[in-house]
């Protein structure tokens, strides 16, 4: 018969972060199309945020025209430029969000909403 343990013990959980990042990066971004989809979704989210915030911020409403996502292919340079006229990010937001896997500025934005505003915000990129 097994003895009951009378002492409580705490152990540290450890992870090989480098290996986890490698697994996540290969699982999520192994195909170029996934990466492109993420860029376009982020641009669309930025435009949705601008539309939403423009309802109460006249400066955003009068900004750079209608919110839009633009894709510009350059066959010679073998590039595709994704740009938008969305809400944008300041320096602190760039530092906090770029290079952080699964961080979603959209999810954080949605958390700040309450009442009817939360229902009306149909923001799509809530998982980073």
Automatic annotation (TrEMBL):
Recorded GO terms, molecular function? ATP binding; ATP hydrolysis activity; ATP-dependent protein folding chaperone; unfolded protein binding
Keywords on record: ATP-binding, Chaperone, Nucleotide-binding
Does the keyword section mention Nucleotide-binding?
A: yes
Q: Does the keyword Metal-binding apply?
A: no
Q: Which InterPro entries match?
A: HATPase_C_sf, Hsp90_fam, Hsp90_N
Per the record, the similarity remark reads:
Belongs to the heat shock protein 90 family.
In Swiss-Prot or TrEMBL terms, this protein is called Molecular chaperone HtpG
What lineage does UniProt assign to this protein's organism?
A: Bacteria, Pseudomonadati, Pseudomonadota, Alphaproteobacteria, Geminicoccales
């Amino acid at each position: 018969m097994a003895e009951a343990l009378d002492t409580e013990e705490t152990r540290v959980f450890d992870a090989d972060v480098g290996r986890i990042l490698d697994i996540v990066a290969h699982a999520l971004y192994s195909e170029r199309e996934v990466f492109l989809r993420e860029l376009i979704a982020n641009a669309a989210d930025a435009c949705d945020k601008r539309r939403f915030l423009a309802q109460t911020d006249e400066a955003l409403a009068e900004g750079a025209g209608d919110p839009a996502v633009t894709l510009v292919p350059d066959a010679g340079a073998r590039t595709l430029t994704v740009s938008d006229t969305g809400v944008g990010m300041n320096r602190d937001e760039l530092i906090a969000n770029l290079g952080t896997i699964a961080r979603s500025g959209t999810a954080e934005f949605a958390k700040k909403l309450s009442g009817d505003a939360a229902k009306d915000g149909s923001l799509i990129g809530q998982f980073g």
